[in-house]
Amino acid sequence: MSARAWFGFISLVTLSTIAAIGLWWPPMLISYLIFGPLFLVGVYDLFQDKHAILRNFPVIGHGRYLFEAIRPEINQYFIESNTDGMPFDREQRSVVYQRAKNVNDTTPFGTQLDVYLPGYEWLDHSLRAASPTADDARLTIGNKHAGKPYSSSLLNISAMSFGSLSSNAVEALNRGAARGQFAHNTGEGGISSYHLAGGGDLIWQIGTGYFGCRAADGGFDPDRFTERAAHEQVKMIEIKLSQGAKPGHGGILPAAKLTREIAEIRGVPMGQDVLSPPCHRAFDSPTGLLEFVARLRELSGGKPVGFKLCVGRRDEFLGICKAMIATGIQPDFITVDGAEGGTGAAPLEFSNSMGMPLTEGLVFVHNALRGSGQRDDITLLCAGKVLGAFDIARLLAIGADGCYSARAMMFALGCIQARRCNHNDCPTGVATQKPNLVRGLDIDDKADRVHRYHHNTMHAFLELLGAAGFSDPTQLRPWHIHRRLDYRQSMHYGELFSYLEPGALLGDRSGLSKDWNELWDRASADRF
Question: Which residue numbers delimit the Glutamate synthase domain (predicted)?
Answer without folding.
Answer: 153-470
